[in-house]
């Protein structure tokens, strides 16, 4: 009987060692090395995307991912709790910047869970519930900010411009999503939920992966599916770039507001059917 003379297949450890022996000289070579490891089944696509996200975060600055001031959702300390609590419930955030409109300044952060004391204690003082606000410059690198978030156990920071004015805000979730992609919470779509959920009479939450044909059927729209298959493709094409959370665009009788998006793709939008007199192209916000 003839013996099998074919060389033995290299072990996983030997394959990893082979790739590690090729020491990269710069970032481009490192990325090439990582892609080579992926192509040789040494890591999966998710691991590759996360490593690339880490490399990206090390070079990005806060100003690139922050929610601009015009799109921030505030609580005014001068409003009575009965006025702003319905707003807190509707927006469903866990943390809110608190402003004093008389001073045009952010005076602290209100945690939604702390509002339980308002119902438990009749004489509760909203000002006494506020947590200190952390202020950071637009130029701060994301990897430095993430380290500070972890060490200070803080989850939100107010971004200021070179003159000290409020430019926007950023959360720890915003930073982490640059590494791991979209992070779902209890207010996001679940895998078992429908792709389109009605919020109000003319307002819907829509997954970006919703097929245009299904969208047309539910909302009575007439978008063509010849160029784009999904709502996400249609919306991104209208922006001309990958939009950030809070941006919106209106066309053909509907307003599309970005609910969730990361550095890689669009995840969900809020769609509002516009009155007939507003069925004209509106500028991007």
CATH architecture annotation name of the largest domain: Roll
The global form is globular
User: What is the straight-line distance between the termini?
Assistant: 77 Å
Count of helical stretches: 10
Percent of residues in β-strands: 15-25%
Q: How many structural units, i.e. domains? A: 3
Per CATH, the class of the largest domain reads Alpha Beta
Q: What series of H and E elements makes up the topology?
A: HHHEEHEEHHEHEEHEEHHEEE
What is the CATH superfamily label of the largest domain? CBS-domain
| Poorly predicted regions | 280-285
Walkthrough of the structure:
By secondary structure, the protein is of the alpha+beta class. It has 3 domains: about 10-60; about 65-180, CBS-domain, CATH 3.10.580; about 195-280, Uridine Diphospho-n-acetylenolpyruvylglucosamine Reductase, domain 3 (2-Layer Sandwich), CATH 3.30.465. The protein is built from 10 helices and 12 strands. The protein has helices spanning about 10-20, 25-40, 45-55, 80-90, 115-120, 125-130, 140-150, 170-180, 210-220, 230-240, and strands at about 65-70, 75, 95-100, 105-110, 135, 155-160, 165-170, 195-200, 205, 250, 255-260, 265-275. The strands form 3 sheets. Strands 8-9-12-11-10 form a 5-stranded antiparallel β-sheet, covered by helices on one side. Strands 1-7-6-5 form a 4-stranded mixed β-sheet. The longest helix is centred in the N-terminal third of the chain and has 13 residues, at about 25-40. It is globular and about 85 Å long. The termini are far apart. The model is unreliable at about 280-285 (pLDDT under 50).
